[in-house]
Amino acid sequence: MDANQADRAQRVYLVIMDETEEARRALRFAARRSVRTGGTVHILALVPRQEFVVFAGIQATIEAEARERAEVLVTTAAGSLASESGLTPVISVRNGDGPNVVRAYLAEHPEVSALVLGAAAEGNPGPLISYFAGNAGSLPCVLMIVPGLVDEEGIDAFS
Fold this sequence. Notes:
The protein is of the alpha/beta class. The chain has a single domain (3-158), classed as HUPs (Rossmann fold, 3-Layer(aba) Sandwich), CATH 3.40.50.620. The protein is built from six helices and five strands; from the N terminus they run H-E-H-E-H-E-H-E-H-E-H. Strands 3-2-1-4-5 form a five-stranded parallel beta sheet, sandwiched between helices.
């Protein structure tokens, strides 16, 4: 394998998955780039900390349901990715504050080449984009933001 092939094999795109259209666009972009560059996709679902409930049993049930929803979400996204592109992504579900969890994941996975986020079409681009765009200089990888108004054809043409 020459140096160019080795470089291409090491490209890993991290997508933060949730139920939004922005996340689906980011995943599509990352998948297209991965296929084109011979890379891999990592899908990370975040389970936010739940508001404190006085009764521990209720708290545990709420947290378990949130985690289960996140696991179904990433499993479904991984299945779609595999059927559309042939890629088998690395999937992970983590509890906690979004920016902290993403930073911890990046620290644990130095092979990640790019953090790929999807921006909302209107209004606030989203909390992760706001945070990471403001702190891009301290990221260990490239930050890629897929604009909210870019459709599937635009993503396919660019990536």
